[in-house]
């Protein structure tokens, strides 16, 4: 590392980007130059997975003169960080200081966003739309027309729908509950290419949902009642879609019905399902995969997941092989 200062800072940053977190921590105490570059990368992405980690971050950047906040670009809270008033207070104190944030993932947290919280280049948001932020969250989202990826989940089953209108003209991806889709105005849905909708807590009019969007590259359907019928409907409305993912917790799907549904696709390359291992024959059975591929000749990848198995089949040259 004695020759490091001979390299341009941009080159050192590119090298350090491949370092693990522990290595960046070690680099921070080597020299002022190296430490400054490593610190910038160390705080670029903050992904907190426990309450203790969140508390430590709050203590670290609590001083008003702390400049570490200006390095943060992506901030996320893991599922193991509990929802509490204390966590909400910490988020209220932290978020306004991350002026250059471009990705914010809050998972199951639903903070009440202050009107002062605004980021100039926020491109990704994921979080819960609950009763506590039903007013502030739509306003927060509308302050960020730069958003390209939006994930919204309900805080409670049976929660009443929003009466707000979201204007996100740069939106490309939406993942979340179907109940929020009517809130997206026409400018918001026009550019969406990846759409994954959860029907948890109620049925979804898939025909009405898909009719609002333009050409889609990916369609995901979570917790549908009838997998084969949903696949057939997507094929009828979006025959050129390239990737489809479906999941169901209530009903098995017959292999012949799924194969018949796949015949309607013209460019499908990837199929994924998350269903009982008794569905669609056996997902670890090559004959099952070949039956699906025969129905849809463009298919190149099939992925299946549930509590028992997790496997992926890929077309390599002219044969299907199971990816280990």
TrEMBL record:
In terms of domain of life, where is this protein from? Eukaryota
The protein here is known as: F-box domain-containing protein
Lineage of the species this protein comes from: Eukaryota, Fungi, Dikarya, Basidiomycota, Agaricomycotina
């Amino acid at each position: 590392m004695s020759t490091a200062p001979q390299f341009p800072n941009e080159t050192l940053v590119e090298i350090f980007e491949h370092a693990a977190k522990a290595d960046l921590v070690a680099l921070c105490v080597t020299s002022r130059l190296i430490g400054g570059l490593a610190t910038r990368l160390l705080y670029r992405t903050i992904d907190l997975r426990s309450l203790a980690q969140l508390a430590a971050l709050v203590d670290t950047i609590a001083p008003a003169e702390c400049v570490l906040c200006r390095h943060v670009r992506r901030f996320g809270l893991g599922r193991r960080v509990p929802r509490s008033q204390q966590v909400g207070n910490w988020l209220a104190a932290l978020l306004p200081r991350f002026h250059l944030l471009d990705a914010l993932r809050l998972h199951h947290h639903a903070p009440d966003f202050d009107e002062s919280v605004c980021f100039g280049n926020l491109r990704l948001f994921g979080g819960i739309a609950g009763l506590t932020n039903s007013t502030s969250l739509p306003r927060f989202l509308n302050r960020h027309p730069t958003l390209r990826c939006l994930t919204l989940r309900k805080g409670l089953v049976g929660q009443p729908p929003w009466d707000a209108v979201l204007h996100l003209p740069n939106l490309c991806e939406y993942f979340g509950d179907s109940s929020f889709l009517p809130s997206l105005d026409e400018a918001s849905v026009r550019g969406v290419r990846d759409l994954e909708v959860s029907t948890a807590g109620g049925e979804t009019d898939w025909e009405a949902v898909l009719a609002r969007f333009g050409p889609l590259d990916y369609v995901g359907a979570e917790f549908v009642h009838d997998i084969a019928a949903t696949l057939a409907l997507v094929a009828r409305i979006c025959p050129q879609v390239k990737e489809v993912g479906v999941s169901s917790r209530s009903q098995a799907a017959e292999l012949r019905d799924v194969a018949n549904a796949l015949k309607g696709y013209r460019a499908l390359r990837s199929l994924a399902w998350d269903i009982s291992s008794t569905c669609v024959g056996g997902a670890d059975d090559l004959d099952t995969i070949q039956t699906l591929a025969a129905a849809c000749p463009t298919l190149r990848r099939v992925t299946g997941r549930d509590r028992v198995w997790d496997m992926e089949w890929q077309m390599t040259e002219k044969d299907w092989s199971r990816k280990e």
